[in-house]
Design brief:
By secondary structure, the chain is mostly helical. It has helices at 3-20, 27-30, 33-50, 63-77, 89-93, 100-116, 121-131, 135-138. It binds protoporphyrin IX containing FE.
């Protein structure tokens, strides 16, 4: 077997062996593996940065860097072979004053993208459950008028 054929067949055989053993495929695989995760991250950043309701905080940002790091983070979270190498969610989003409405706007865009890519409802919910705890580090509470 050529090295190329091996690289293609080995993961496929491992995947089938897992299925035969009754294991759930990893979330990473249900998102489409490396190519799927990269496409999801890129589509999400393209969409939010072009959406008049959500684009505000992205205007001075390097979109390619965010796409790459978001893909790495989703790969890591979903059981894929990556380790997130970016900064903490708190550091990265500090000062952008991201509101809860903007957070949920991004979640809605992510849901739409996953639906278009035929990711199942169960896998979609699983990914959203992994992202939800980050809300407290992304969203900055509105400054109260009393202060
Ligand atoms: C769970 C939800 C979110 C995740 C997982 C996430 C993830 C990320 C990642 C991985 C980066 C790049 C990190 C780095 O540069 O080291 C980033 C940057 C950024 N994100 Fe998010 N993000 C989330 C929500 C949001 C929301 C709701 C907004 C605004 C609507 C937003 C706006 C930004 C901006 C503007 C940057 C660039 C920051 C800068 O360069 O100063 N993010 N995000």
């Amino acid at each position: 077997m050529t090295a190329v054929a091996y690289r293609v067949l080995a993961p496929a055989l491992l995947f089938l062996a897992g299925m035969a053993a009754g294991e759930e495929p990893r979330l990473y695989d249900r998102l489409g593996g490396g190519a799927g995760v990269a496409a999801i991250a890129a589509a999400l950043i393209d969409r939010v940065s072009a959406d008049p309701m959500l684009s505000r905080s992205f205007k001075d940002s390097k979109l390619d860097r965010i796409k790459k790091l978001l893909a790495e983070q989703i790969c890591d979270l979903s059981g894929g072979p990556c380790r997130y190498s970016g900064d903490s969610m708190k550091q990265v989003h500090a000062g952008h004053h991201i509101s809860e409405a903007e957070f949920y706007g991004m979640v809605a865009d992510l849901r739409e993208i996953l639906k278009q890519r035929h990711v199942s409802q169960a896998a979609t919910n699983q990914l959203l459950r992994l992202l939800a705890p980050m809300k407290r580090d992304v969203v900055e509470p509105a400054r109260s008028a009393a202060r």
